[in-house]
Amino acid sequence: MDFNEHNLADRLSGEFIGNTVHFFKELDSTNIYASRIARNGTPEGTVVIADCQTRGKGRLNRVWQSPSRKNIYTSIILKPSIKPSVAPQLTLTAGVAAAEFLSRYCPGAVTLKWPNDIQVRKNKICGILTEMRTTGGTIDFVVIGIGININMRKEEFDEEFREASTSLREETGRDISRVDFVVGLYQSFEKWYEIYKSEGFASIKDRWLEYSEILDKKIQINHRGNIQKGKVLGIDECGALLLFDEEGKTKPVLAGDVSLIGDK
Predict the structure, then answer these.
(1) At how many degrees (to 10) do helices 178-199 and 201-211 cross?
(2) β-strand 47-50 against 21-24: which pairing, if any?
(3) Are residues 147 and 232 in the same domain?
(4) Residue 61 — pLDDT band, cuts 50, 70, 90?
(5) Half-sphere exposure for 189 (CA within 13 Å, toward CB)
(6) DSSP, res 203
(7) CA angle 127, 129, 133 (to 5 degrees)
């Protein structure tokens, strides 16, 4: 099935996530475009999806490699009735939704790396970038950007992160229908977003920790050159990582690159 707006809209008819589809053959960034239309009042559940991006955005202002005809680059617009301080919960919710769906293709091999990466056998396959706009302490909208490597071959990744990256094609040995995949991804996201709204963050947190490999492990966190080390105690109610540091203090950590101490 061709990867285009008509086929996606047809498959998503009647769904909440994907009730409105903005599809582009080429776009600077799905997050940039989603933020623009969200400011103009587009409904919650609207999705933006591109065949390729010219300015794909990763966390900490990094570039997300976004070639055409290969992967999924999409953004979901949400308008949750929550405080801005707990918005990081939505990043973890998206991580759980994507990890659960990816597990259908790679059973037992998918893990979550805090705060926004998904790995298969310790190689990155998915990144999530959450952005929001607020007014007077109230959330106007949240944009959940998701990039997933689907049909890229190993040699097509940029050399600097080739050995640390993977795709579904590399893991399964076959090409994957991007239409089928993104429809299933939206359905998984809708399921977990409804759980989040009805049951709160506790169920999300428990599921996230099941997919994570860092609970009770010693880690190092590098945030713009600032290094922290300690043992992971869990996730707090705002979605921050709880670190028992070398000084014997428990502190929440909101951002940084995590690595297991002693992990090669």
Answers:
(1) 130
(2) parallel
(3) no
(4) low
(5) 28
(6) H
(7) 170
pLDDT, tens digit, for every residue of 133-166? 999 999 999 999 999 999 999 999 988 888 999 9
Question: 174 phi and psi, to 5 degrees?
Answer: -145, 160
CATH of the domain at 170: 3.30.930.10
User: Position of tokens 């070639």?
Assistant: 67
- My answer on whether 111 and 229 are in the same domain is no
What are the beta bridge partners of residue 142? 78, 132
The domain containing residue 32 runs over which residues?
5-211
- The number of residues in the chain equals 264
d(CA 150, CA 180): 12
Q: pTM of the entire structure?
A: 0.94
3-state secondary structure of 179: helix
The answer to whether 168 and 184 are in contact (CB under 8 A) is: no
Distance CA 23, CA 52 (A): 10
Starting at the edge strand found earlier in the chain, the sheet holding 226-235 runs: 250-253, 241-245, 226-235, 218-223, 257-260
Farthest CA pair distance, the chain = 57
| DSSP structure class, residue 57 | B
How far is residue 226 from each of residues 129, 256, 257, measured CA to CA in Å?
Answer: 21, 9, 10
165 with 227, same domain: the answer is: no
